[in-house]
Amino acid sequence: MRSPPLAGLRVLDLTRLLPGPLASMHLADLGAEVIKIEDTGAGDYARSAGAVHGDISYFQLVNRNKRSLTLDLKQAAGVDAFMRLAAQADVILEGFRPGVVDKLGIGYQAVSSINPRIVYCAITGYGQDGPYRDRAGHDLNYLGYCGLLDQIGTPGGAPAIPNFQIGDLFGGSLSALVGVLAAVLGARASGQGRYVDVAMTDAVFAHMLFPLLAVLGLGQALPRGEDVLTGGMPSYGVYATSDGRHFAVSAMEPKFWQMLCAAIDRPDLKPFAFATGADGQRIHGELAATFAQRTFAEWTALFDGVDCCVTPVLRFEESLENEQLLARGMIVEVDGVRQFAPPFKLSDLPFEARLPPPAAGEHSEEILRQSGFSVDEIDRLRVQKVI
């Protein structure tokens, strides 16, 4: 079996909570050596703050396959230790507010002066420049500024809050990975690393394609619930069943709409797949009335035999048992906790939970010893409470 594609890549992960740790877990799952650097107090506060529905915290879901080193970066000896590790690293991830790592003495300029091939990625809400650079924020704030939140919801209603951190996960995790891996390829080819500035607001904003099309064509985005993907077109929407469940209709191509109309015995609706405005609302109402005539189970049985992009809206616990997701191996167990497998399938790379989520500082001595620190140096760091 071949080595994992990122074997030999050493990552120092200074991030905490959600966006950065998920990004570094993806790197770890692909074979990178990820060293999670936590402070000597409580460590990553997702360890406790993330337990919102019982004893399991989301820390356990985004920190497998990593080792933990606790390090006091407010002490000079802690900074010196970090810089010795950074001299041997390929990637550094950080999620502090702009300027914090520079004040600590471990910013990109300091590290690149001793390790020119370093790829140094900063994940922030608003980026390293601009008038908002120093503002605090969380996912909902980023969605608000980039215009996405205003687009989600029903006509005349308030913006709907998604139960998925679009900015954190899509913006902060996946966009950071694209930038990091591109910079790693460049560093391996040229010997020169790069600074990767990822703003979660930017990342979501840069993918707002349909609102931008509306502005380019009409001069403004359509109100929520009225654009083609938010309820303005009957062939793309969510419809309630007689027992209060829902179906997702995405029959946007003419052939699928024709199949849908035939399946529900409404041939009169066939000309109106792309109706908008008053016609669109009328056909939407007709389709809603039709779906309301049968139960969720009845519609599920019917559409199981009609491949027209109409699917049940599953509750999440049902998704955990969904035959397709199970067949894809998307649920794994790590240290007794069910969690998600990597969302990418690479040939000759079966998923492996090499390490469970680490205890804070669990691998401090091991990491330092392997990085060339002597026993006496490690003992001094421990006495000074640097580790």
UniProtKB/TrEMBL annotation:
<dbReference type="InterPro" id="IPR003673">
    <property type="entry name" value="CoA-Trfase_fam_III"/>
</dbReference>
<protein>
    <submittedName>
        <fullName>CoA transferase</fullName>
    </submittedName>
</protein>
<dbReference type="InterPro" id="IPR023606">
    <property type="entry name" value="CoA-Trfase_III_dom_1_sf"/>
</dbReference>
<dbReference type="Pfam" id="PF02515">
    <property type="entry name" value="CoA_transf_3"/>
</dbReference>
<dbReference type="InterPro" id="IPR050509">
    <property type="entry name" value="CoA-transferase_III"/>
</dbReference>
<dbReference type="InterPro" id="IPR044855">
    <property type="entry name" value="CoA-Trfase_III_dom3_sf"/>
</dbReference>
<keyword id="KW-0808">Transferase</keyword>
<dbReference type="GO" id="GO:0016740">
    <property type="term" value="F:transferase activity"/>
</dbReference>
